[in-house]
Amino acid sequence: MVSAGWTESIPTSLVDRLRTRQALLVAGLGCSALAGLPGWPETLRRIAARLRGDEGPTARRMVEDLLSRGRRSAAMAYLRARVPPAEVAEALAEAFPHGLPVPEPLVLLALLPWRGVIVTGFDDLWDRALTGAPEPFVQLDPGIYGDSEAVPLAGRYFVHVLGRANTPGRLCLAPASCVPGVAGNPRRVNDPSSRERLSRRVLS
Q: Which among 83, 98, 117, 130 could bridge 124 via Cys, Cβ 3.0 to 4.6 Å?
């Protein structure tokens, strides 16, 4: 239940959707920043640092140029075409270590009755925050849940929609690297275009 104390500063329309289990929370790297973790520009720089040899300096200048123009999705696509998946995963694992203290705002947000939580970060903060929710969340994995029958049409769920660092082949950081999986609509697990569009919006 959403108490009066919680709802005083929340728009009425959102409170109504929470009460009827029609609200999804999209949790980005801003949530991770509460634990001192990097945002997208620094994350992209860390991936670019994985490029060595003659190509490295040129690629890093290109990434900085794209970032200066606000073109994060283009910078990510550029890097994904050049940095091997295993190197990308290692950079993400180093940038987003697991086991950090869960920030209090995440703990409090996890208490609200969301229908689902779409996580676009690569840490485990939300995994642990949601364990304290009054009702359990079912974790969906885009690489495992390959058909709509595997996705619960009732109950609550959460998903790391861009993938995890420990499964490099399932990372979805640019349209060409997305594979069929779960996006904002849990019934469309076989539609890779959903993850592609979300990837672009998250990085933009």
A: 98
